[in-house]
Amino acid sequence: MRFKIIKFYAITFAVLVFSACDTIDKPYLEENSGKCGNGSLSIPIRKILLEDYTGHTCGNCPRAAEQTELLIETYCDHIIPVAVHAGFFAEPYVSGKYTYDFRTTTGYAWDGFFGNASAGLPNGMVNRIEYNGTKILAYESWAAAVEQLLKEPPKINIKIENNFSQGTRDLKTSVDISFLKSASEELKLSVLIVEDSIINWQKDYEYVDLENPGNTDIENYVHRHVLRGTINGDWGDTIVEDGVEQGKTINKSFTYVLNPEWLAENCSVIAFVYQDNTKEVIQADVSKLIE
Fold first, then answer.
1. Maximum CA pair distance of the chain?
2. Arithmetic mean of pLDDT, 69-83
3. How many Å apart are CA 6 and CA 245, to the nearest integer?
4. Any idea what DSSP says for residue 244?
């Protein structure tokens, strides 16, 4: 018999983190399509890119994954999660349990630029903003960074439309970027593919195996929101070079052939717009390939 013990102090800590923010009416319930909030939030809503840098041999990384799910439960559509497997803990073994390769060239490009793996996993970024002087945040700081961002109204609205052929595995994606406020900086658009619920090995230092005490290897771990690759390159496309007026809408269309090893029903497209000079994400959105 195998089971996971969730320690009381961890639950208590999570409750304290969220109850300390007296501005939150939680949970942020989904009241209708396109809206997520407590009844006072307007459409469109602010959507936040949450990057969890992780690895399958990182025994502490499941705690960050649990924090991601807690944030999704609390903030619902406001959170756009992506798990980036990079660094030493993401390297596959030649044989044995951890032979599956979750790595991507994009994940390594981002990790090489921001330095998440070298800072010590698990960690992540919340819209790639600097919070308390750093972009790389321990998972315990994610909620506070999210709460800070939600105080600001969205500057951009992103809408994704996917047309996927299961027969040919051809994907056509259309992304509309509508500017709710003018912008003066250079902006880029990145479009990603993520796959959810990949079943494979994961090390977990808090895993309890009564049949094999001391075992920290979970065979059927559910890997959530896994970055599979990008549709338009590691750093995306420039959509605004020298400013844009409020009210303007930009459309970008893409074609992509989905890898036959990926489950299309578990895949989604994520699109986000960011400032080129700071890499800060302005707005994000996600849409499943198959609704």
1. 63
2. 96
3. 50
4. B
Reduced DSSP (H G I as helix, E B as strand, rest coil) percent helix, strand, coil of the chain, to 5:
20, 35, 45
Q: How far apart are CA 251 and CA 206, in angstroms?
A: 46
Q: What is the mean pLDDT of the chain?
A: 89
What percentage of the chain carries pLDDT values higher than 90? 82
Contact of 50 with 272, CB cutoff 8 Å: no
pTM of the complete model: 0.88
Question: What's the CA angle centered on 284, arms 281 and 289, to 5 degrees?
Answer: 145
3-state secondary structure of 245: coil
End-to-end Cα distance, the chain: 36
- Per-residue burial over 245-265, b = 16 or more CB atoms within 10 Å of its CB, e = otherwise: eeeeebebebebebeeebebe
SS3 19: helix
**Annotated domain spans of the chain:** 2-288
Identify the residue whose tokens are 């109850």. Answer: 19
Using CA atoms, how far apart are residues 51 and 101, in angstroms rounded to an integer? 19
For the domain 2-288, what is the CATH superfamily, name and number? Answer: Immunoglobulins (2.60.40.10)
Range in 29-38, 93-102, 169-178 with the lowest mean pLDDT:
29-38
Residues 6+ away with beta carbon under 8 Å from 71: 50, 79, 81, 142, 143, 146
Asked whether residue 69 carries a pLDDT value surpassing 90, the answer given is: yes
- The pair of three-digit structure tokens given for residue 278, joined into one six-digit string: 């700071």
Contacts of 280 (CB under 8 A, 6+ apart): 127, 128, 129, 274
Strand, helix or coil for residue 34:
coil
What is the spatial distance between Cα 226 and Cα 106, in angstroms, rounded to a whole number?
12
Compute the distance between CA of residue 165 and CA of residue 163 in angstroms, rounded to an integer: 7
